[in-house]
Specification:
By secondary structure, the chain is mostly helical. The chain folds into two domains: 33 residues; 52 residues, no CATH class. It contains six helices and no strands. Bound molecules: zinc ion (ZN).
Length: 98
């Protein structure tokens, strides 16, 4: 799972407003850590991206608008360097093979 800055910042903001008068406690830190690891429902993680990237590449190679058909995969590829590299390697390999 990737570092989720947006979730981190949201949980941080929540934590600050809840605990403004107190020091950070371990429970709050645990809660914040869970927030980091929980992706928003409109985002997919690397596992889901990996499962769908074959289909995505097929659409690209078929001259279809893959980004419009699979916007969550496109979104993840924009944000995730690792998956982007994997996608580009897969695309290059399949282009070379056809
Ligand atoms: Zn990824």
């Amino acid at each position: 799972m990737k570092w989720n800055w947006r979730a981190f910042k949201e949980s941080l903001r929540r934590g600050i407003s809840m605990r403004r008068r107190n020091r950070l406690d371990p429970d709050l830190l645990k809660q914040m850590a869970r927030g980091i690891m929980t992706a928003r429902p409109d985002e997919i993680g690397c596992d889901e991206c990996f499962e769908q990237v074959d289909d995505f590449v097929d659409r690209v190679l078929g001259g279809k608008n893959a980004a419009a058909a699979m916007p969550l995969v496109q979104d993840h590829l924009n944000r995730c360097h690792d998956c982007r590299e994997e996608y580009e390697a897969l695309l290059a390999a399949l282009r070379a093979a056809t």
